[in-house]
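Researcher: Structure prediction, please.
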Amino acid sequence: MKKTILLADDSPIVGQSLYRLLATEADCELCAQAADGYEAISLAKQCNPDLVILDLSMPKMNGLEAARELKKIMPTVPIILLTLHANTVNESFAENLCVDVIVPKGDFKHLMDSVRTLLFGEAGDRMDDSATV
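Model: Predicted structure follows.
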């Protein structure tokens, strides 16, 4: 059975790129795509994802606020936070921020390795390092 992923990013270009990247994974499928934190919470309640990927900077409700709310209603669902500001949002703060992993936006190998680790308990080498979206 495929694992389901909810993706929340307000950029249509980033959302499409991540959708294409996630579609390359045979064991995963995107169950919903949101443009802000409120929509992510609403869609998570509907589709019960196995994993949530949130952009830090979104309108209406940012990724950190959404992560806090999602952990209240789905405490065991892992959350990946995507951010352009990964150098200021350190991995050591991940637990306090209610996220499991912080990934620099654009680091697709790190993102897919994190997806595989959180969903399947493995660091994946299936994705070619030169993969582009």
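Model: Helices lie at 12-23, 37-47, 63-73, 108-120.
Researcher: Thanks, that helps.
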